[in-house]
Amino acid sequence: MTIEPAYPNKNMYKDPKFWDDEWVNSREDNITRVQLKNQHSSRNLISRLFFYIEMMYRFFSNLWDAKDKKYDYILVSTPPIFIVFSAFIAKFLFMKKTKIILEVRDLWPDSLIGVKIFDYPIIIRFFRYLEKKMYQNADYIIINSIGFREHIERKLKYPKKIIYIPNGPRAHEIVKEKEHQEEFRVVYTGNIGLAQDVEHIKSIAKLLHENNITFHVIGYGVKAKEFQNYIEKNDLHYVHFQPPATRKESLKLIKSCQLGIAFLNDEEVFSTVLPGKIIDYMTCKTPIIAGVKGTAAKIISANQTGFAFNQSDVHAMVEKIIELKQNPQIIEEMGQNCIKTVEKEFLWEKNIHKLLQIIT
């Protein structure tokens, strides 16, 4: 059960190329797409609250309609937490023997504060109370970043098993050998939004252009248009901006580049996050130059898959890129480390067994 896809925008999914997973398409009858009238993209507090409340109500209604099926488990993801509470209410009322597997993909409401969507202390306190109850009442908790563990454990009354299942590639997606490229290329893929400082991404683009280094960007998000306009206004012809692409297309572009860029804002909540693009870069044997701290920085440094910098230190990042351009052997060594790290820690076929051990 899920809402209609709307990220980064609903119109994108009118293009059939984004429905390219035949395994999923062949099971469309098993997918319930919940229709919502309110818009989640509004930054108005009241509009967003109505969106969340409607979401909880409609998910609960679908669970009510399916109450006779007697599910053994409900696996529910957050954020937002309102979907989770539709499952808890259903369990309390008519699914008492059903166990709740809570998958935490982001720390909420901390992520709302981090991107400065709104700052209403009374509401934030209420959301924190709901967050604590969510962790305490789940039967199992799955996290996709090891950095979430300590935060969640602080909110539990009693110790509870927390299972780490990171985002990761399928085995067939891992790049063993990269094709030789005459042109030195750097890539950024993913969100250019509230969790990334667009000014720093602009600075990276300008500095790479000034050093005649090709920079490919597949971007989306609320700041993507601003970034695109900046490129055009400043005639940064070494920077190539592309609209959202499929996963296959994105991985193909990453594979053709020597280095990948990653950014997160310098907010404490983001120190717990492991951006999916970092794993995608490693999957494509593409070392990372990242303006990140905390969990992501530790993984990059510990596995020698790239270099992590202070988020604002864009000049140091570009200097490192220029240095590495002259040292392809170092890039090759880090690329090998990327593949070793993915196969050891992030391979989906290995990590999915942690979930199977719960439900079988």
Automatic annotation (TrEMBL):
GO MF annotation, one: hexosyltransferase activity
InterPro entries with a match to the protein in the record: Glyco_trans_1, Glyco_trans_4-like_N, Glycosyltransferase_grp1
Gene3D superfamilies in UniProt: Glycogen Phosphorylase B (3.40.50.2000)
Keyword field contains NAD: no
Domain (Glycosyltransferase subfamily 4-like N-terminal) ranges: 32-168
Residues of the signal peptide: none
Protein origin, superkingdom: Bacteria
Transmembrane intervals: 73-94
Protein name: Glycosyltransferase WbuB
Organism: Compostibacillus humi
